[in-house]
Amino acid sequence: MANTAQLLRRQSSRDIVLKSQKSIDQLELRELRGRLVPKEHGVSHHHHTSLHHHHQPMYGATNQAFMSDAFDESSELEQEPPFGSDAGTSKTKAELAAVVDQEQQDIVEGEKEGEERESWDSKIMFLLATIGYAVGLGNVWRFPYLAQKNGGGAFLVPYFIMLCIQGIPIFYLELAIGQRLRKGAIGVWSQVSPYLGGIGISSAVVSFIVALYYNTIIAWCLIYLLHSFESPLPWAECPTRLYKNFTYDHEPECEASSPTQFYWYRTTLQCSESVDLPESFNYHMAIALIVSWFLVYICMVQGITSSGKIVYMTAIFPYVVLIIFFFRGITLKGAADGVAHLFTPRWETLLDPVVWLEAGTQIFFSLGLAFGGLIAFSSYNPANNNCYRDAILVSLTNCGTSMFAGVVVFAVIGFKATATFDRCTEERAGLVAHNHTLNLPICDLQQELANSASGTGLAFIIFTEAINQFPGAQLWAVLFFLMLFTLGIDSQFGTLEGVVTSLVDMKLFPNLPKEWIVGALCLSCCLISMCFANGAGSYVFQLMDSFAGNFPLLIIALFECLSISYIYGVRRFADDIEMMTGSRPGFYWMFCWKYLSPCAMVTILLASLYQLITDGSSYPAWIAAKGATESMEWPHWCIVVAFALILSSTLWIPLVALLRLCGIKVVEDSDPAWFPEAELKEVHGIVPHEPTELERSVFCFNMDGTEGMCCPKYGLPEKSLEEEEEE
């Protein structure tokens, strides 16, 4: 065992070195270190002892554990001088001891020479960035709507079931594979197999498309935030119109709808009556888009070292505002009715397959899976970071935030619904008092609560209408839209980071610094996003939101799971996680990766396609004459665009594999990133894992380390390692 340990230490000491230009002194020191480790038993023992004091995750802006190129051992061997050269005898024992001490300090961190990969300054920064990425606008304006629509408290049953069999396992998978292979999505999947590089390209493309329209929401929040300082709020009452005879009257379109609806559809969006009629260019929207993309660029230009510090505000501030709104909301009249409406279970809805479909879809998109952002974020982590604990913590924080936001939103909606109900009952009582019993208004509190909208309708119409009735409405409006802005922009960081990291790792522009790549990316996105700055811009937004960000992500995540389970190997993946964290993933996680999660995603994908084919797809178009929206079918050219969006993201997966078979490399092969495998095994005391009988039956693990596909092979029982040694 002593000789084996010395061999591992000698091999790892060579593997640490990177391809880089070294000075003569550095080459001499390296050569001497290679001789010292296998010969000096005392030093080797000191090495082993000191190693256990340096196994905690190391963070820092120049963390040396993140190397993008592997060491070419042959190149160093060619440069090594003969064993008896003068270079080795010219150094004193003190110098050699200093070299050994330096090696001990760099075991987890790596060498200080060569190309360096950015890293998080601290574990808190990584967690806040990941939470900020996962917790987004969908937690505030989609989960509450889905919960009250699909059975209230009963919706939590399929929600948490889908979290356990789909959400957390894939979240865990992406964090672990990114930390192990230390590259962006393209680099990771190309290293798993050269034929799988298309998965990373698909993630980068879909992230680029989603970032295009997601930043439009940030621009809307900026517009509302700017106007929130006005008194009175511009959406608090209908504007007036000047007629030719110099008389004033309220805008008829606003009177037919409501002040909040008119301000949203006509003032902010300047909506046309159809996606085929873009009408005039919306200059206010264009300026907001330019400003929002500039802010994203400023936050990302310095890399994760800079954007990581920004997440201290963007990730924490939404929780501060939610807590403030919570205490304000629960003191409002009708808040209890709103919260009760949200969580009162309607158990019969569990028999509806649509409820399970929407629960799985919400979990999937709420956690931000398959974008490549999680892989990019985790690639900046130390090699011995506990990714399992991070996956559980962030996933549960995300779901807890959704439920807490639901309480806040429906407390405010309950207040709004109660105020509307009270006005209705007063009007009804007045009509009855004057003996007007015909056509009396119908007052129904539960119906008012059920009229809550999802997405932009909830944030920019219903919630703003409720804020209008708050004392000091300007303050609450500023807090609310600033919260939406921070929720949106830190999710945007993660989405774009997946694109930027993939571009950098592919070395498409090897001579350009990362700052220029980020600038070119933001500039191109800004120019393309001008398609949202017209009368039909909101309809284009809905088209992209409906198709570009759902089917492609499901397909990408499915291929990620299949690639790890059946190509990389669940057993090998479990070994990697045990090497990094010191504990092996349990049977349940491996079962999810190989069977449960793929089956869940295939089911959701097929059910979504069936629902789309049977029910069709439409969009709400604003009809100015009626002051209301009407559902309209997408024209043929929009359907073509929708299919183009889906195919542009997913076709890369088979295309890259087919071209590779033909000898054409879309993704160039790159050396594996440096990873302290031997050191981590020694730190955690890792020994070869002998599969249990259950693992061999379910996962087709063989005693020789190989792994079957999915069908167990029955026959003569294989002998265990101990039995073979006895023979």
Helix and strand arrangement:
Elements: H1 2-15, H2 24-39, H3 41-51, H4 73-79, H5 86-89, H6 93-105, H7 123-134, H8 137-141, H9 143-149, H10 156-181, H11 185-192, H12 197-227, E1 240-242, E2 248-250, H13 252-256, H14 259-268, H15 283-300, H16 304-314, H17 317-329, H18 335-343, H19 353-366, H20 373-379, H21 387-433, H22 445-450, H23 456-467, H24 473-506, H25 514-528, H26 537-547, H27 551-581, H28 587-615, E3 618-623, E4 628-633, H29 636-650, H30 652-661, H31 677-684, H32 693-699, H33 721-726
Antiparallel strand pairs: 1-2, 3-4
Helix pairs in contact: 1-2, 3-6, 7-16, 7-20, 7-21, 7-24, 9-21, 10-19, 10-20, 10-21, 10-27, 10-28, 11-12, 12-15, 12-24, 12-27, 12-29, 12-30, 14-23, 15-25, 16-24, 17-21, 17-24, 18-21, 19-28, 20-24, 21-23, 26-29, 27-28, 27-29
What is the helix fraction of residues, given as a range?
A: 55-70%
Based on secondary structure, the structural category is mainly alpha
* Parts with pLDDT < 50 across at least 5 consecutive residues: 1-55, 60-93, 99-115, 710-721
Q: Write down the overall geometry.
A: globular
Overall radius of gyration: 30 Å
Average pLDDT metric:
81
Q: Major sheet, described briefly?
A: 2 strands, antiparallel
Q: What separation lies between the terminal Cα atoms?
A: 21 Å
Number of strands: 4
Strand order of the largest sheet: 1-2
Beta-strand fraction estimate: under 5%
Q: Supply the number of helical segments.
A: 33
